[in-house]
From TrEMBL:
Keywords: Kinase, Transferase. It holds the Pfam family PP28. Residues 74-151 form the Casein kinase substrate phosphoprotein PP28 domain. Residues 84-162 have a biased composition (Basic and acidic residues). Residues 1-12 have a biased composition (Basic residues). Residues 38-59 have a biased composition (Acidic residues). Residues 1-162 are annotated as: Disordered. GO terms for molecular function: kinase activity. The lineage of its organism: Eukaryota, Viridiplantae, Streptophyta, Embryophyta, Tracheophyta. This is Casein kinase substrate, phosphoprotein PP28.
Length: 162
């Protein structure tokens, strides 16, 4: 049954410790941050004393779990070292990937083809030049024919005026 106007939260009601429970230490209340911090400092002091003794005996780093047993060369684990511009070796040429090499070769082949095309040495250029010469010849003939028709027309007008 509900109690009053407001619904209770689904997580349940809050439970408060009584002063007697707090004094007896049977409270279900969590420890405060200050108590946890004080306990952590005490544990650190103990571990520092132990680590000083163990560091004198063993200088190697302690690794978690099986990392100390198994040494793995994982290239993804190593952080990439940043290289500054002044430290870069300009004489050293880096290896290009297959795609980069293919792209460069493709560009060079296209440039060679375009040079030959401009010089008129390729099959397509020869066909284009022949077609261009034919079109020029047809245009010249058409222009000559128009001039003759115009001259004939002008001559007829001149005869009609006389």
């Amino acid at each position: 049954m509900g109690r009053g106007k407001f619904k209770g939260k689904p997580t349940g009601r809050r439970q408060f410790s009584t002063p007697e429970e707090m004094l007896a230490g049977t409270s279900s209340r969590p420890r405060t941050f200050k108590k946890d911090e004080a306990e952590a400092e005490i544990e650190e002091d103990r571990s520092d004393e132990e680590s000083e003794e163990s560091s004198e005996e063993e200088e190697s780093d302690k690794k978690k779990g099986t990392q100390g047993v198994i040494e793995i060369e994982n290239p993804n684990m190593a952080r990439p070292k940043t290289l500054k511009a002044r430290d870069a070796d300009l004489d050293k040429t880096s290896e290009l990937s297959r795609r980069e090499r293919e792209e460069i070769e493709k560009q060079r082949a296209h440039e060679r083809y375009m040079k030959l095309q401009e010089q008129g040495k390729t099959d397509q250029a020869k066909k284009d030049l022949e077609r261009l010469a034919l079109i020029r010849q047809q245009r010249a003939e058409a222009a000559k024919k128009r001039e003759e028709e115009k001259a004939a027309k002008d001559q007829k007008k001149a005869e009609a005026r006389k």
